[in-house]
Amino acid sequence: MEGENHSRVSEFILLGLSEQPEQERLIFLVFLLMYLITGLGNLLIILAIRTDSHLHTPMYFFLTNLSLVDICFTSTTIPKSLANYLSGKKAILYISCLAQAFFFGLFGGVDSILLTAMAYDRYVAICTPLHYSMILTPKVCVILVAQCWLWACATALTHASLLTRLSFCGHTEIPHFFCDPHVLIRLACSDTVINDLVIYTMGGLTTVIPFIGILISYIHIFVAVLRIPSAQGKWKVFSTCGSHLTVVCLFYGTIIGVYFSPTSAHTAQRDTAAAMMYTVVTPMLNPFIYSLRNKDMKGALRMLFSRNSGLSL
């Protein structure tokens, strides 16, 4: 009964990245700039792909969904942080914290599995190019994306539901800039064995299994590339995979470092810095990575800008 009396805290305190007023103003400006770049960059990627019929292929269908998820992913955490820095209040309601934890898990899970779908797309295109259009039909692509959303939703809902059973005993200060489920579990004063078990098993299925799938895809791709006789042909194949590999390293590297490292290695500063990488920095860099290294995307963006400038005239 005593645990139940403490389980329903009314709000949490998000300590953020700093408690120094001078640093908070700088952090606010940096967060605002990164959020605007993320939203605008990913929106341009979506518009460029939708307006260029040459990019209506499975690879760019997955990229469109990835850009949409990245906008949603950053919108889960950054706006609340900006509001807190602007108002000087760091409180977040209990129910809002749970909602933030749910959507963080949802969009993070979709992001993870979508990167696997994109790796599978590259595997089919490079290893079985003659069967590409037969394997990755529009229907198959839609089913793959729908499965990403369904699994991520089920995982996020499970985590959020299990958070409601925890007691916090007045421990309401979260050493983070958002309600990370992993951090909330460490704050609880009640038994967290079930939460820990679920977050590592279902988290593993959402993160580690897709990562292994990506590795397997790229092992097959690497073997196929070695069979290409010309150096130019090898470079062309690698250039089509370079953007995706860069994003994979940024995204999975930080997530595995935070959630699958020994507990003794965790510190609030280290976890917050790593979380910044995959929740803020990676979604912001994705549009640059996929556009600057891709001739088709650069052409579509030029077409989009020239069309808009022609309409304004």
CATH domain class name:
Mainly Alpha
Domains, number: 1
Number of helices: 11
Strand order of the largest sheet: 2-1-3
CATH superfamily: Rhodopsin 7-helix transmembrane proteins
Mean pLDDT: 85
CATH topology: Rhopdopsin 7-helix transmembrane proteins
Derived from helix and strand composition plus strand pairing, the structural class reads mainly alpha
Molecular shape: globular
Unreliable sequence segments = 1-7
Q: How do the SSEs run, as a string of H and E?
A: HEHHEHHHEHHHHH
Distance between the termini: 70 Å
Helix content: over 70%
CATH architecture: Up-down Bundle
- Total count of strands: 3
Query: Tell me about the biggest sheet?
Result: 3 strands, mixed
Describe the fold and architecture.
This protein has 313 residues and is an all-alpha fold. It has a single domain, classed as Rhodopsin 7-helix transmembrane proteins (Rhopdopsin 7-helix transmembrane proteins). It is 78% helix and 3% strand. The chain is built from eleven helices and three strands; from the N terminus they run H-E-H-H-E-H-H-H-E-H-H-H-H-H. A three-stranded mixed β-sheet has the order 2-1-3. Helix 2 (21-51) packs parallel to helix 10 (268-292), helix 4 (94-127) runs parallel beside helix 8 and helix 4 (94-127) runs antiparallel to helix 9 (231-259). The longest helix is centred in the middle third of the chain and has 34 residues, at 94-127. The chain is globular, with a radius of gyration of 21 Å. It starts with a helix and ends with a helix. Mean pLDDT is 85; it is low at 1-7.
